[in-house]
Amino acid sequence: MRVLVVEDFEILARSIGTGLRREGMAVDVVLDGTTALERLAATRYDVVLLDRDLPGVHGDEICRRLAHSRCVTRVLMLTASGTIEDRVDGLGLGADDYLPKPFAFTELVARVRALARRATPPLPPTLACGDITLDPARRAVFRAGRRLELSPREFALLECLLAVPGLVVSAEELLERVWDEAADPFSSAVKHTVHRLRAKLGDPPVIETVREGGYRIGPS
């Protein structure tokens, strides 16, 4: 899941970014509306957490542009004002959800995940391939009934592969979906993470490396 946090209060923005990364999401953080539009033009995000009162380009204008572009990115509007009128205004601009500050982080995570499910083709509540089962809501992975301890990156990578069983996912796409803007596109981060994931999944191997293609899980 790729998330863009647009919030001009830097401490809050960085805190949200850190918390969402711990939940296994790839998160970019910007502090003004102008930079937000530049990122949105260059990267496909599943969810945007959007403060309304932003320097540069106002959050309302960003929301309008996203709505008019008919893109699949979902908008969760954040604001210090929680009146009914403000909520109605935000939703009328094209926001998909509205969360007044202060908020509980657990609720923020739940709303982000709910919006992400609407940004992509619907997936079943649990993903499975053979004796491997992944439960996104519980952040749990099992093989043959045994729970595996995966890092957030390993979990997110496995989730990407299980979402399209039998199809090849390129290293470039995995880098975009699982890592954030700080990732070096020329690094071997994907390769090393796949190696660690294979070791934790055990035998028989289930993740196939497709020469000059990427990675695949399940029969082709």
TrEMBL record:
CDD domains, per database record: trans_reg_C (cd00383)
UniProt keyword terms in alphabetical order: DNA-binding, Phosphoprotein
Stretches assigned to the Response regulatory domain: 2-116
Modified residues (4-aspartylphosphate): D51
DNA-binding region location: 124-219
Residues of the OmpR/PhoB-type domain: 124-219
Source organism, top-level taxon: Bacteria
Claim: Transcription is one of the keywords in the record: no
Pfam families tied to this protein: Response_reg, Trans_reg_C
Ranges annotated as spanning the membrane: none
Name recorded for this polypeptide: Response regulator transcription factor
